[in-house]
Write the structure tokens for this entry.
Amino acid sequence: MIEEVPHRLISCLESWRSEEETVACLVESGPAVIEPLSRFLLEGKPNKVFQPRLWAVKALAALGCREVLLAYLFQERDIVDPEERLGEEAVESAAARCLAAWRDEETLLLLLRLSEHRLLNGLIEALAEFRALEAIPYFERALEDDFYRPAAESAFLKLGSKAAEALAQSAVTPRPEASTETPGSLKRRRSAVRLLNAIGVSKAHWQILRDVLYESDAELMVENAKLGLRFASEAERLLIAHRLIQCLPSASWMVQSDMEEILTTLWPEAAYEMEREIARRLKQPETARAWDPCLSVLLRVKRRAEQASYTLPESR
């Protein structure tokens, strides 16, 4: 039990010195502290003040205690108090993160097994260090949760082009299905397309992704439009411009900014459609024109295009 931990260890853990000093204090004690530290971690209760347990994890990792960390992570804990649960998750994440130091197949398989049951930022980061393609479904699942998404996005970036196919498929897969898509699923798909913009796609990937142009979600469609600028056919580029104009009124100002950049790029091909839309919206009453975000964006696009000396193609 905790009270059995030698006085020196308790003094280190409860001293509130810096993390580095505390862990160094424990590690300097050598193998003699492994058993009491293990009991402290495995038998101790979660606490809102979680730092002592986290420092114990780091000391055990520095002392090479892989099995203790694995035993801890595979323990089942039912923590009712939300603050204690959040604190213990920080400890668990640290334990998983430390296991990345053991770059062997056995550790990888155990981490993958753990990933079947737990979402942990530290586990995502550890698996990312292995560059394990088997972990892609786990990373993809984490994209649906705001708390775990940043770690999952970093993991995909580490995998790079090896993850492009999976991300392309994820981007076009609403869950449970299109008509009942959950908010988390939509966030996952937005993230997948953003990642593909960072990683890069092939023409084959664009063939999978082009149907996203018909999506009603402006952010998802715009991120996909960015990908299409490289591979889209002339007809698809006109479709991109058409869909951007359709979605402009409902888009947030940040998304509208991206739309403006894309429409400016597409001006040579889609100028006539944009000119027609401008003319149509200029017929509105003055008050409506003043508050029309679509008109404002299109007028800026036209002005920028003219300043760049774009010339309209001949009328067909």
In short: The first helix runs from residue 7 to 13. Confidence is low (pLDDT under 50) at residues 1-5. The radius of gyration is 27 Å.
